[in-house]
Structures are given as C-alpha cells and as structure tokens.
Amino acid sequence: MPKVLIVDDTAFMRKLLRNILFSGGFDIAGEAENGKQAVEMYKQLKPDIVTMDIVMPEMNGIEALKAIKKLDPNAKVVMCTAVGQEQMVKAAIKLGAKGYIVKPFQAPKVIEELKKVAGMS
C-alpha cells in the first residue's frame, strides 16, 4: 500500500487523517506539524504521497510543496484546504500538487482522492 506523510499543524487533524487513511488501507510513513519538518521528513521517509495543509507556521504548505518538488519533481502532494482557500489551491495545483481534499474531511472523499493520486482507482 502507498506510504503517506501527513502534514498539518493541528494534532487533531493529523490524527483524524491518520485514522481515515489507515481505514482506507494506506500506510502512514510519518507526520509533520509544519512545512519545514515536512521537507526534512520527505527526504528521510520518501513517502508515496504527502497530504499537505496549506496554512501552517514556519513554512506554509505552498512553500513546502515548492521545496519538495525541487527535491523530487515526481512527488505526489495532495493539498488539504479549508473552504475559502480556493486561490491557494489553484496556485498549489499550478506548482505541481496532484489534488486536494477539503476540511472538514469526509472519509470516502479523502480515500477516493488519495487512491486516484496513487493510481489505484
């Protein structure tokens, strides 16, 4: 199963996503609470997919996406967005994000999107 790196500055959101992905059969490679940590963990863990929150301290999701894409042009990053962040999502897609999921997370939609990005659907 694909290994996923979960990136969100809120522990509750990471746990929620971890539970959804685990139930969908994904392996959790690790969790990061900001973009800077995400880039370091990407180098170490080489996950198949990254779920990337957009608004975070230290380094936001867009900056982290750019850094990860620089390390690995084939990286599969799925942005996590709250309603009202459409412009940021569009910018992220232009920068190479493979898709997005909307908060509050709905398990079937999250699993469907990640399976699509992983090439499993």
Q: How would you describe this protein?
A:
By secondary structure, this protein is α/β, with parallel strands linked by helices. The protein has one domain: Rossmann fold. Helix content is 46%, strand content 22%. The chain contains five helices and five strands; from the N terminus they run E-H-E-H-E-H-E-H-E-H. It has helices spanning 11-23, 35-45, 61-71, 86-94, 107-118; strands at residues 3-7, 27-32, 49-53, 77-82, 99-103. Strands 2-1-3-4-5 form a five-stranded parallel beta sheet, sandwiched between helices. Helix 2 (35-45) packs parallel to helix 3 (61-71). The longest helix has 13 residues, at 11-23. The chain is globular. The protein starts with a strand and ends with a helix. The mean pLDDT is 96.
Number of domains: 1
Largest sheet: 5 strands, parallel
CATH topology: Rossmann fold
- Class inferred from helices and paired strands: alpha/beta
**Cα-to-Cα separation, first versus last residue:** 13 Å
Helical proportion, percent range: 40-55%
Q: How are the secondary structure elements laid out?
A:
Layout lengths: L2 E5 L3 H13 L3 E6 L2 H11 L3 E5 L7 H11 L5 E6 L3 H9 L4 E5 L3 H12 L3
Parallel strand pairs: 1-2, 1-3, 3-4, 4-5
Helix pairs in contact: 2-3
Summed up, what is this model?
The chain has about 120 residues and is α/β, with parallel strands linked by helices. The protein contains five helices and five strands; from the N terminus they run βαβαβαβαβα. It has helices at about 10-25, 35-45, 60-70, 85-95, 105-120, and strands at about 5, 25-30, 50-55, 75-80, 100-105.
Write out key terms for the chains shown:
121 residues; 46% helix
